Amino acid sequence: MMNMDILKNLTETIEARKQASPDSSYVAKLFSKGEDAILKKIGEEATEVILASKSGEHEQIIYETADLWFHSMVMLAHHGLSTEDVLKELARREGLSGIVEKNSREKS
Length: 108
Fold this sequence. Notes:
Elements: H1 2-17, H2 26-33, H3 35-55, H4 58-78, H5 83-93, H6 98-106
Helix pairs in contact: 1-4, 3-4
């Protein structure tokens, strides 16, 4: 599947940047600045997704969502996680009622 290859390749690239020099790439610079910088970017990108959605411009929505996903992947890598972990959770939830799934988390 092409889409899964994109996520896999991007995950591998992000992982490789964790130990790279901050001068060598944007992602390496983000990692060097730490979690707060990564989370700040996620907040900025989430706001941009909201604004793009409100504008209704499809290309802008796609562009900003890609930025949000990318920065979320950087955050996952910061914690030693990957898109695969998120996909497994989505697979676990598939077919569950959203209400049932939410209630199961609240009881934990």
